[in-house]
Amino acid sequence: MVRVRNVCLAVCLAGLSLLVRAESDPTAPLGWQAPATQKKTAQRRLPELQGIVCPQQETCSVILDNRVVQPGEQISGYTLKSVQDDAVILQRGGRQWRLALFHEQIKIHE
Predict the structure, then answer these.
(1) What is the DSSP code string of 53-82?
(2) CA distances (Å), 19 to each of 14, 38, 69, in order?
(3) Is residue 12 helix, strand or coil?
(4) Distance of CA 18 to CAs 12, 15, 21, 59, Å?
């Protein structure tokens, strides 16, 4: 009988502990509120320009992230707008990026 009472008491306390939970951090200073969490927007990585191929009398192609891309095609959400001798222009949304064959020459055009 005592054992049954102890088991019931343990079950009741376990159930009560599930119902009662701290709504905030008990170690936080009085009146402190956690900062509102901001929704992070996914940022897409710019494709890596690996080469520009311009055969005679034909449209130039570029190699971006190990893929051959023609002007007007998309890669990773970016559209290849134009191809120059040493750089390309990518566009996404209303922004444009100029990718040169060397990373330190990346420029953003708005």
Answers:
(1) E--TTS--EEEETTEEE-TT-EETTEEEEE
(2) 9, 29, 59
(3) helix
(4) 10, 5, 7, 68
State the Cα–Cα distance between residues 76 and 88, nearest whole angstrom. Answer: 15
User: Residue 107: in which H helix or E strand, if any?
Assistant: strand 107-109
Q: What is the DSSP letter of 92?
A: E
**Token pair listed for 30:** 């009085």
Alpha-carbon torsion angle 62, 63, 69, 70, nearest 10: 10
pLDDT digits (tens, 9 = 90+) for 56-92: 777 889 999 999 999 999 999 999 999 988 899 999 9
Q: Which two tokens stand for residue 106?
A: 């990346």
Q: What was the pLDDT predicted at 17?
A: 57
pTM above 0.85, yes or no: no
Residue 91 and residue 99 in contact, taking contact as beta carbons nearer than 8 Å: no
